[in-house]
Amino acid sequence: MIFKLTSKNRLIHVTTWTICVLYFFISYFLLWWDCRPKAVTPYEPIIGSLSITICCYLIYSTLQYYLPRKNQYLKITLICLVLTVMSVGLSIFFLNQFFDDFSLTHFYEVLPYRFIINFLLLLCVIIINIFWNIQEEYEENKRRKDESERILRDAELYNLRQQLQPHFLFNSLNSIIALIGIKPDEARNMTFQLSDFLRGTMRKDDKQLIPLTDEIAHLKLYLDIEKVRFGHRLTTTFGLQEEAKQAKVPSMIIQPLLENAIKFGLYNVVGDVEITIHITWTNYMLYITITNPFDTDQFETKKGTGFGLTSIQRRLFLLYSRTDLLETSIKDNIFTSTIKIPQYD
């Protein structure tokens, strides 16, 4: 804001004194042209240019924040007429007080033309000043709107993340309760793992984008907890392209996909299940693909994408303003989810 005001003040001074100099030279040239070959004095052009300069400063000072409403054009015209009369009156006053009769006589001869020129010039200055104020008001409103949208977006993102954590926490606590009686050691290990997982989650609360390697380390904690729940039935395979390690991703963006894969891949399904995670980098786009088998009957009873996938799609839209960054597909009892995350320099 300080820079803007400083720039505007500088522009006001430059334009005002530019008008002053141009007005003087044009007036002096016209005076010389009318009176040649008789010698002329610069008094009349100096007084006229200084008068118009004073009026320009009055315009900038009085209309600095003025934004006309509809049907107020007459008011602008009246302001311009008053300032034009003032500029002409100042010239007549100073010529009468301090300078020769020749300058005053010539001034009266060209008074109608000078009045019209001063009026048009001051009207242009007023219009430029008003347009400048309109532009500043537009930029300020846009800045406030963008700031409000950013605050709302951050609040919604935070709310989505806070909903994800209890969703996983309740499942883990239920599993710990189930293990306490039959496998107390595994229940204790799962409690420690859950503690480490939640501690890592809390550290990420203030970070929107994190390195992919940090996200993978966090996912491994999550998978360790799930492997305690499901034992040997759950197998996971990671495929990570070397170039992808430099990528950054929204924190906890992959976990809901894994949770969805485990939900449909292991719940009510007999036998071992393998979930694969492939992460690749192509043309500044990070691709995260998760596949899991599922039972067709069990899948049909749980229609919809579920809260996890819906929350991912919403978060990606809020972060990147795109709706094509999450894709799901089904082929031969294999469910595939793919996240695309743009990587900017």
UniProtKB/TrEMBL annotation:
It holds the Pfam family His_kinase. The lineage of its organism: Bacteria, Pseudomonadati, Bacteroidota, Sphingobacteriia, Sphingobacteriales. InterPro entries: Bact_2-comp_sensor_kinase (IPR050640), HATPase_C_sf (IPR036890), Sig_transdc_His_kin_internal (IPR010559). Residues 155-234 form the Signal transduction histidine kinase internal region domain. Its EC number is 2.7.13.3. Keywords: Kinase, Membrane, Transferase, Transmembrane, Transmembrane helix. It comes from Sphingobacterium suaedae. PANTHER family: SENSOR HISTIDINE KINASE YPDA. The chain crosses the membrane at residues 12-33, 45-66, 73-95, 115-134. This is Sensor histidine kinase.
